[in-house]
Amino acid sequence: MNQKSSLEQCVIDSLDTYFHDLNGTEPHGIHAMVMLTVEKPLLQNVMRRAGDNQSVAAQWLGINRNTLRKKLKDHKLIK
Fold first, then answer.
1. In the Cβ-directed half-sphere of 47, how many Cα atoms lie within 13 Å?
2. What architecture does CATH give domain 6-74?
3. Staple 8 to which of 4, 53, 63, 69, CB 3.0 to 4.6 Å?
4. pTM score, two decimals?
5. What does the alpha-carbon distance between residue 75 and residue 51 come to, in Å, rounded to a whole number?
């Protein structure tokens, strides 16, 4: 049996609550909403754990440092 990670289960539970709270209203833009909601705290947490070292954080995230800088700027986490 394929066991879900606690993070995956948290996302499932949150989406179940989201759909329940819509009370029949049709959702729009769910992918963008979820990505924006998850990305900022992910970046904040990884940057903190990497001691604000962008090179280390980018390596941990598996993305290019320039991509990380753009994402940090997009989320107003750096100037």
1. 16
2. Orthogonal Bundle (1.10)
3. 4
4. 0.80
5. 18
